[in-house]
Write a structure and sequence with these properties.
175 residues, Peptide Deformylase, globular, Peptide_deformylase_sf
């Protein structure tokens, strides 16, 4: 193995170690953070369920621009431990791709979702600074709107072992 490969391997291992220490910092089992780790690596929302533990990650993206037009897209990844939907409002028709489906489906999702969580953690990923920070979310009731509400609704379907269903793309007509 060449020296450069060794250095890269050490960086990867250090990053993986930092991820797992994050769970320790919040006194949560490491697997509770798997959805967050997947959101960081692959993007999007994720869910995980095991005996006595359910966890969802929801990603909120905000692009911040400087005066010169340069900027960065900050990602807020919310970890919802043992989420329970309290209320849903609205009905938004949208195309959605789930890893289990071969193509996108037309689904209807709520535009606003309120959830109660046992614990909530907010992980902030700043690509401009190349920093990841995390903090406890105050309170046990969180409200998500728009894309984040869609993600919560979708991931709750997975946690509740409900089938993600909708209309197929080939049911559309060209006009």
């Amino acid at each position: 193995m060449e020296g450069g490969d060794d250095a890269e391997t050490r960086r990867v291992l250090a990053f993986l170690g930092a991820e797992w220490r994050l769970a320790d910092r919040f006194s949560l089992p490491a697997e509770a953070f798997l959805p967050v780790f997947f959101s960081m690596r692959f993007g999007g929302a994720w869910s995980y369920a095991a005996e006595g533990l359910r966890a969802v990650s929801v990603v909120k993206k905000t692009t911040v621009y400087e005066d010169d037009g340069k900027g960065a897209t900050i990602e807020e990844i919310y970890l919802l431990v043992d989420p329970e939907v309290l209320s849903e409002e609205g009905a938004v028709a949208r195309l959605e791709k789930c890893g289990e489906e071969p193509e996108r489906l037309l689904v209807v999702r709520p535009s606003r979702v309120q959830v109660r969580v046992r614990r909530g953690v907010r992980v902030l990923v700043d690509p401009a600074r190349r920093e990841v920070s995390a903090g406890e979310v105050a309170g046990d009731v969180l409200t998500f709107e728009g894309p984040e509400a869609f993600a919560v609704a979708h991931e709750m379907e997975h946690l509740e072992a409900r089938e993600v269903s909708g209309r197929r793309l080939w049911e559309f007509r060209f006009v």
